[in-house]
Amino acid sequence: MASKPPLSSVRFAGSTAYISGQLPRGADGNIVLGDMRDQTRQALANLEAILKSEGLKFSNVLKVTAWITDADFMADFNSVYREFFAEPYPTRSTIVSALVVPDAMVEVEAVAYRDNN
Fold this sequence. Notes:
Layout: E1 10-13, E2 16-22, H1 36-53, E3 61-68, H2 74-84, E4 91-96, E5 106-113
Parallel strand pairs: 3-4
Antiparallel strand pairs: 1-2, 2-5, 3-5
């Protein structure tokens, strides 16, 4: 695996959490090989781990930005996305784009809030 990039996985501005893009990396740091469903599940599990580390849940997520490498993956992405997010869904932008990391088909970033009540 390449050296760690110069970024934070999460940063707060007040009660708003900005979470860096999560790739489908397994515990060993390598991209999980498999289909779009497998990779989406891993990327969202990685997002969940960061949320939990900050005492947050998927219900705290307000906005998601996702990058997928092929528009034909949209149905598979959405089916797995629904396993993690419930209504009311966060706002979302989905972009079809090449990703910097070879073998990655998806990357997901989020903006969440911490309810201070």
